[in-house]
């Protein structure tokens, strides 16, 4: 059972509404609840605190009096702190939505309910109305409706008590059983300190607090200059190929900063945003601190070197070992990353590379069940950005738990049921490793050595190797292997640990069967083990092939496997290929863990 101690009753003249404590001294409510605060006293009451505590409005969202005006947010500062009451906790923004719908509670103070009462609701959809509100509908046909007295009430998850938003409108007619919620991440546009309380996995609270303090140090005269407008600074931060400006106009410099923090997957954009602030500030200490952010060691992203083939070698990004000069890859990059809005919400961004130039063709936060359709549509669209003679490569950057996803088997489109892996060379990459400056550096070194080697060394990890020490494997692979072949998929247990150890060893090529042997064999994995047979076929097929050309060879192998009419599936039917050459993808996005801290 969740505590109601941080719920508050707000009175301002003849108006009564609700609110909720977010710090020891600050309460959030609707601006229209305290619209007369200029002439009437504001009082805040808590169930376990005697009497009403005087308060004053210290921040305002800009609401100007009409029901359809945005910014219906007010921050109240209490005359005294209330350390006996623990402030409300916030959920991730996407937690309010789900299938089946999540049950939401609002604690309001309508007439004849001085002590407060609960209303049960659910969010109709995660779509914002006018870029500001989410529609609420009654959980059941009976029960307490949202009527006057609920404005400003926290909307909480019934099972955790965590806040996902605030009731911003209530019906005068009790027969109307819907209302509107101002989601927490929208409220944060209007009060920067709220951004520190809302979960964002890519940034810690200290990171967001520091950025807020720096942004708040720039006065209105700063953003009045055209070159310092929030829109201009946002565009400079995301670059010419980054996500476009949102359809609404930024209301403040913080609004733009919060949009970068909460909506844009490129965490490096926040560092660039800070650097642009430094360009226009006159305060020397601030300028020095801001300029230092992008240049920290872990902020340095791998850049594409000039490709000069070694004697007898190929071009690095396109040819690989001993293959002669060949055209470089033109990747279509599909990045799928947790959005920070809950376990089942992802940021999907599809980009096309044409030489060193990258263009984002689509970027959107989506629930897991909509990722596939959106990614496939944007992949098809990305082909418009490639030259006719371009050497296509579809590269999926996936969270580690998704690396075994059957992206190669995805039906290419609604009109083409053939697997995506038969349409073009397709590889996967690990999101966490792509964000590691150290491992990207090691990968670059590995490919430089591969370009100069006549052959690549394959290390086999059999089903019976699950008890192997992961640390020793990582060190051993760094010293004596170029590719790793697994007999079983990276499922839970020993195989997954060894898979992670191989990623940490900066192995540029990793191959495994998506299905088949479960990796629970012992004693070497020989005999009738399907995994051992897979490794034998793999070693035979890879013999003499340059690693830089593997995407093409595996593509041809997949075509053969998909077209096979044999009664048993071809050994490579479920073959997965992790292949990563940082030189193919200059200036990758989103690889800074904490650019603000």
TrEMBL record:
<dbReference type="Pfam" id="PF20028">
    <property type="entry name" value="VMAP-C"/>
</dbReference>
<feature type="region of interest" description="Disordered">
    <location>
        <begin position="289"/>
        <end position="324"/>
    </location>
</feature>
<feature type="compositionally biased region" description="Gly residues">
    <location>
        <begin position="313"/>
        <end position="323"/>
    </location>
</feature>
<dbReference type="Pfam" id="PF13365">
    <property type="entry name" value="Trypsin_2"/>
</dbReference>
<dbReference type="InterPro" id="IPR045450">
    <property type="entry name" value="VMAP_C"/>
</dbReference>
<protein>
    <submittedName>
        <fullName>Trypsin-like peptidase domain-containing protein</fullName>
    </submittedName>
</protein>
<dbReference type="InterPro" id="IPR009003">
    <property type="entry name" value="Peptidase_S1_PA"/>
</dbReference>
<feature type="domain" description="vWA-MoxR associated protein C-terminal">
    <location>
        <begin position="345"/>
        <end position="582"/>
    </location>
</feature>
